[in-house]
Amino acid sequence: MTEESPTFASFGVKPEIVKALGEAGIERTFAIQALTLPLAMAGDDLIGQARTGMGKTLGFGVPLLHRVEVPGDGTPQVLVVVPTRELCIQVANDLKGAGKHLGIRTLAIYGGRPYEPQIEALRKGVDVVIGTPGRLLDLAEQQHLVLGKIRGLVLDEADEMLDLGFLPDIERILRMVPDERQTMLFSATMPGPIITLARTFLNQPTHIRAEENDAGAIHERTSQFVYRAHSMDKTELIARALQAEGRGLTMIFSRTKRTAQKVADDLVERGFAAAAVHGDLGQGAREQALRAFRSGKVDVLVATDVAARGIDIDDVTHVINYQCPEDEKTYVHRIGRTGRAGRTGVAVTLVDWDEEARWKLISDTLSLDLAEPVETYSSSPHLFSDLGIPEGTKGRLPLSKRTRAGLSAEKEEDLGGKRRGRRGSSGPASPSASEDEAPRKRNRAPRKRTRGGARSAAAIEAADAAAPASSGSSGPDQQEDRPRTPRRRTRSGADATGPATSTGNATPATTSDSGETGDRPARRRRRRRPSASDTPASAD
DNA sequence: AAAAAAG
């Protein structure tokens, strides 16, 4: 366990990509990456599942970039479809960074923004496209986006993309790309029914699961708590919690857009540097809020589930569920915004009377037993320290009692004025979004990650389905949001994956099973076939 | 029922 995970270079990744990753402080692979690279680079279809914040983006991004023909003819060669605009921007930036030394042109295609820039970029030529369903279909129908040469397709947050709301659009997109293509699905959560559905359009896919963890994929690194906020003033409760020592960036999730805005406004009024992000805001405001949060200008982000998946921001130390999430998948993704890449995090779910049933369902499904918190990381900040809970009791008392008792008590006396400030943030900040990125852009600092998780176990299963391979072309890049690419991670061997990674255990992920995987000879045939330009995707 | 996603 102390050994370090294999490097990207050891998988035969192109030097230009290795160099770009290195510049971002990334050298070694995470478990999902080590497990995915061999198969993905060979052109196999696959379903990749790993816990949140464990590198899934590069897990499919590197193989995808690897098979882009450079220079291409300007026709998109690979496509990544994501559920939200902000995630689209983020993934595009990550891939843009990883492919910069190859001269790969990357473009983010999403709604809420003018058509022209995107159309113009396509006109000039694009190799890699990352997009949200609506705008992708829109531009494709207008003939501005040509999907006829897509040789690699990825559905990020796959279970969400194949859910009722998105399925129709995804099916249409699938009908527009060549049958002969490589298709990969990634997500931290992958319900059985979704996998079954996926097999209908995947070609003998291998199911790769780093750190097996059926129910969800929750990091042991994140301390989870449930707080029975029955009939309590949740905003007041949170206002206090936000004053916790050592708190870094904090994300607060609500179930509705209205509530998200309201909570953000209330917190701003109380003097917190908070911003809101939800679908009722203009795209500019959404991106501005996220940038402000990323840069630290605002350290409290109140969001709807638009920000529950994929958003990768360093330094998010706390996630507070102002309202109980809809289901267990949403719960897993929401709290997955913290405790990323080897860091620790704290997740607190406030449960009101009318949410008890839903919470029980989530709790049971994920086998959570938060009434008796698993463990407390002395090194991680604790919201509860400001809720009147004795330090040493955090992990033992029945949450419902201790918290309520202590809280209500103080609540009445202290409640009066609104205090402000909390640790770092300064006074009142702009409400929704303020400017943004002035402060630190942490992107740079290449931190290096040490371990990855090659070693973790992986459950590989094969499945099958029908499907293709593909071919493609190339294009420019895009901009927006956060600069940073991958993130750093520190920590040495064993814990890289986290103490919990234990799950990994023995399975030799990488090769062993994956290789030929007992099942079928998946990889062989599928590779792309004859396209005029075909290049060896897997060549190297 | 809610959110997101084209406008």
From TrEMBL:
The lineage of its organism: Bacteria, Bacillati, Actinomycetota, Actinomycetes, Pseudonocardiales. Keywords: ATP-binding, Helicase, Hydrolase, Nucleotide-binding. It holds the Pfam family Helicase_C. Residues 453-475 have a biased composition (Low complexity). A motif (Q motif) lies at residues 6-34. The keyword Kinase does not apply. Residues 499-515 have a biased composition (Polar residues). It comes from Amycolatopsis albidoflavus. This is RNA helicase. Belongs to the DEAD box helicase family.
